[in-house]
Amino acid sequence: MQLLHVIKVIYQKAHFINPQKLLSFFCFFFTINLISAQQIEVTKSLCENKINPIGIETDAPRLTWILASSKRNVKQSAYQIQVSEKEKSLKNTILWDSGKIITDQSVHVNYNGPKLISLKKYYWRVRVWNQNNKVSKWSTINTWQMGLLNIFDWQAEWIEVSSEKSENRPSPLFRNKFKVTKEIESATAIITSHGLYIAYINGKKIGDSYFTPGWTSYNKRLQYQTYDVTSLLQKGDNAIGAILGSGWYRGTLAWEGNKDLYGKNLALLLQINLKYADGTSETVGTNKNWKTTTGEILTSEIYNGELIDARHKKKGWNLPDYNDQDWKLVHVVSLDKNYLVATINEPIRKQETFKPIDVIITPEGDHVLDFGQNLVGFVQIKVKGKKGDEITLKHAEILDKNGNFYTENLRAAKQENKYILNGENVETFEPHFTWQGFRYVSVKGISGKINPENFTAVALYSDMQQTGSFTTSNELINKLQHNIEWGQKGNFLDVPTDCPQRDERLGWTGDAQVFFNTASFNMQVDNFFAKWMKDVEADQLKNGSVPHVIPNVLNSNDSGSAGWADVATIIPWDMYLNYGDKKILKDQYNSMKAWVDYITSQSKDFLWNSGTHFGDWLYYIPEKNDTETRSAETDKFLIAQCFYANSTQIMINTSLLLNKPDDFERYTTLLKNIKQAFIKKYTSPDGVLSSNSQTAYVLALQFDMLPENMRAQAAKHLADNIKSYDYHLTTGFLGTPYLCHVLTRFGYHDLAYTLLMQKTYPSWLYPVTMGATTIWERWDGQKPNGDFQTPAMNSFNHYAYGAIGDWMYKTLGGIKSSTSISEVGYKKSIIKPYIYNKLVSKNENEQTKDEQLTMIQSNLETYYGKISSHWQNNENQIYMDITIPVNTSAELHIPSNNIESVIEGDSKLSKSENVKIIETTSTEIIVALGSGSYHFTIKK
């Protein structure tokens, strides 16, 4: 009726309207109404959390789709999936049709059709019905392609260099030729290596990934990558080539000259499966006929960098017509293929690029480029010079207080790339199998003035989708968020590393678990961590203890530290809460259980007071000349008992979720005994803990170690402790992530906000005021007078303290998921932003403008779509703009106790048809929202 009325009005006034404009209007109007009539549509489809993935190894891939609608309160009531072996067959011959399935599930829906075939490509689409039984259009057709599903699918052979005498271990080249005589329908390359590889077909690089095959527990799990190489092949002669680098496999790792940790010899395994248009197929791959030599990469190490001598370059070595008569035949080796696994996480790719913002001549005479951002990757250089000229690029994160190039904190890592010119025209260089962490680059060997246009810094990190954004009215907080994001980018190179620059770059478990929640706001990290958690289980000791670093390249006894080894339970549980992924709990359950049972075996009378622990790593220690001489140290065994309880609680939750009643009962009893032992050992009746530190109270309150009647007292002791340090935090790696959460939970939100806004050491904003562009490892990595902390451990890109981002998103932005079983993964959102933020260390009229938050825009892309929580606090009113994805719901907390003062859109809240009031308290109105966008105005 509404449409007919509009048409009637337009018709009556048509003689006043240009006919062409009238036609355009009708087309637009009918399109909008058609979408409106459909009410729901599929906008994005994922398989195993990726778009059109290739190399899937699971026999039941999980399918996800994101929905959109122009209307509010729209939900899915049913879906139908169709899968075919050919795109056109989706209109006639279907491999699997789910039929109409009555459910609102749209995330991680398992394929349930006929058995899947190795390397086969499958086409799929989905349509859904809304709550009114209106069906959507079919989605666009998406694909997935399988990997190699059994060992017999491997026809290629492992090949190595016949002999290797050079101490520098130059990167070997491998090549072979083959002929294509038929029209190719499709070609798939499957590649892995001992060491890192770069592969080519006819001179063109296969894929755009770096540092493949990635880093895993190589002797237990070695990844292979799958590529569609159809477009790289040609009729007639074709050449396949590959370069290998030492990488993590045999390069130096950790300390004391550790190398060859997985083996001494580099090896390549590569095959191409060709499918011809006539229905026949062929496989070509590494075998005894391949040849090898060395080229321009004379040495390449992750820590030390790369030496490239262009005078040794083999021009055209990866092209079909190259003469390789001087090359040697490879050595075929019998190596196990049973531990080869498909890659499930995103590859490392080139990302942002930076040009120098300044060229500096330091007091010591170094020529230094400043790229303006502490990043991880390498520098591309274009240079023209004489044959034999040597260019050296050294990398550093920071200049010292005198403005000189500072590399002492790199310890034994050289972070140095050298290029020797061949003298032919303009030459372009970049490293192949190494990366650096840097903002500043020292350049030596270039005669004359340095042209900054000839240098480009390239950021490298695992290619995960950015999912979160967090912007405020406070520029320092915005810079902090920037630093958190870049700390994550620089340390998420296939594994979550502790730092990207010094002689370490290891997958420290404690750092990863404390940062996981923040990481999952910033990026889509579930595939990244699902892969890494498989290595946690692979390297877990037989007794259940978990190593300090994963993959484990330390000693076997370097394991079992509280808060580090608890990665085995904490990340799987948090991944379930954040992504609704029950599979991670099923996959990791035995590992989780083994860890908690290990702690129990090491405990006496339910007290875990044995073993070696890092404790609250890098907590605040006052300067020697500081008048405040108290220590913020926390008893390591008190910390251990708290994490023992937390991991046991996770086992209770998981065993209940996975329907394991015996484990549920056992861990429930165990947790009761753990907490009783804690109270007896570490507490007094008035809530004072034996360690009177911030971290002690934070962990005891975060993990509910105290009975209800003691918690308020303990929270007050925590608040008093913070005030006694002049409103500063003193926590280290284990206390910091939970500090502000605990304060907010127990009624001290303004104190938490005060800690966030502190600009003096120790605080989150202190490094920002010192010019940091990433998160520092230490609260005082550089002191106010310009001096540095001990160079033995002083990274300026170390994400652990960036864990405050979780609280910023959840509390200031107000976005978090419900934790109810059927609502995790943002199936239901809790939107509760804290809009009234005050500094308790100052009177309100003393607060400067930059110490107040008047606006926050926070967004999160979930597997249901985008959640937005935007608010602005003006003098007379508050605005809130909320977006809830289709097929989800939300509970919104509005900061007012007067329903009549709240307007939604153009209507009073009390009369809004789409907002249901749940409860009104003395401080807020709680409402239920369905999907859609909402604009609230709250009059003060």
From TrEMBL:
InterPro entries: 6-hairpin_glycosidase_sf (IPR008928), 6hp_glycosidase-like_sf (IPR012341), Alpha_rhamnosid (IPR016007), Bac_rhamnosid6H (IPR035396), Bac_rhamnosid_C (IPR035398), Bac_rhamnosid_N (IPR013737), Ig-like_fold (IPR013783), Rhamnosid_concanavalin (IPR008902)
Ranges for domain Alpha-L-rhamnosidase six-hairpin glycosidase: 465-811
Reaction(s) this enzyme catalyzes, per UniProt: Hydrolysis of terminal non-reducing alpha-L-rhamnose residues in alpha-L-rhamnosides
Pfam family, one: Bac_rhamnosid6H
Keywords on record: Hydrolase
Coiled-coil features, chain-numbered ranges: none
UniProt EC number: 3.2.1.40
Keyword Membrane: no
Gene3D superfamilies: 1.50.10.10, Galactose-binding domain-like (2.60.120.260), Immunoglobulins (2.60.40.10), Maltose phosphorylase, domain 3 (2.60.420.10)
Residues covered by the Alpha-L-rhamnosidase concanavalin-like domain: 362-461
Enzyme class: hydrolase
Signal peptide positions (record): none
Residue ranges constituting the Bacterial alpha-L-rhamnosidase N-terminal domain according to the UniProt record: 182-351
A biological process term (GO) from this entry: carbohydrate metabolic process
Domain Alpha-L-rhamnosidase C-terminal: 823-900
GO MF annotations in UniProt: alpha-L-rhamnosidase activity
PANTHER family in UniProt: ALPHA-RHAMNOSIDASE (EUROFUNG), ALPHA-RHAMNOSIDASE (EUROFUNG)-RELATED
The name this protein goes by in its record: alpha-L-rhamnosidase
